[in-house]
Hints:
- The protein has helices at 3-15, 28-47, 49-53, 62-87, 93-102, 118-139, 145-173, 177-196, 208-213, 221-239, 264-274, 278-291, 293-306; strands at residues 249-251, 256-258.
- The protein is mainly alpha-helical.
- Strand 1 (249-251) and strand 2 form a beta hairpin.
- 34% of the residues are buried.
Amino acid sequence: MNVAAIENDFQQKIDKDLFIEPKDAMPDKYREHLIRQISQHAHSEVIGMQPEGNWINRAPSLRAKQILLAKIQDEAGHGLYLYSAAETLNISREELIAQLHSGKAKYSNIFNYPALTWADIGAIGWLVDGAAIVNQVSLQRTSYGPYARAMFRICKEESFHQRQGYEIMAHMMNGTAEQKEMAQDAMNRWWWPSLMMFGPHDSDSPNSGNAFKWKIKRKGNDELRQKFIDKTVQQAEVIGLTVPDPDLKWNDEKQCYDYGEIDWDEFNKVISGNGPCNKQRINHHIKYHNEGAWVREAALAYSQKIQPNAI
Ligand code: BYC
């Protein structure tokens, strides 16, 4: 089949809402687009373990520590499903990690902010995982089969993550004046970066055109952001937190909240490597990746010993 025929056949499958599977013919640009997005998603899950990992030893109770450990372990699992999904597109794990270390591959803006207090762990679970679920539920219907299937399990786990974060915030808002202040401070610092997680406005989103044509994206950045705002503002009100946006206002006609302008300069600064913790996050990853080289070598040697023809 020539290139035009392959592309035609491929687009017909997409238009019929069929999943594209690893061995199906696909345009190079579709493959590249998916490698970019899935690998960035995988890197986000793994780098996202750092701000939370910082609090394992300082969790305020054994219960809180067990929950946090389980959550962080889930994030590692999400990273693994996603790296595996990306590898089905004919790229090796080594290449994906090299792209992260060189700065060629991005990861979510949100993980370049520090987790300063225990309330930040609540805010990460509630707001960051909450934003991630809204985006990922829509990705369950993305056109690439392995990515969509990874999303099913990830979404189930993220919903537990979101609830544990909300529980921490609700607990603190029921506590002393100092605890309430700490929860509000975390809300103030994580709200805007959480809105940025959905990416630039659709009109400034260079990847959205192809993403819609190929049904990688089913909903736009702005529609998902709005959905997140509408459900989260109500949750904040229930526990007495104030959303740090003076322009936030219910719009009766549109039946959704109007919200203030997002600081896109800050977003661009953070995603181009100049946020508060970018260097720390990457240096940490490089250090432990290098220190873990012997584990990868040993695992490879073992698998070759028990299955000499496997590789
Ligand atoms: N951060 O054309 P656009 C988690 C980049 S982890 C950084 O709209 P697209 C968790 C974008 O890559 C969940 N960069 O892009 C883990 C592009 O640059 P490149 C993470 C961003 O791809 C541990 C440029 O801006 N979720 O939940 O159509 C603990 C223009 O954007 C961001 C995912 O990764 C950003 N926020 O749409 C706790 C979801 N936004 O690549 C929790 C999967 C945009 O051309 N990804 N950029 O150089 C997606 O759904 C889409 O990639 C996005 C962006 C909606 C994020």
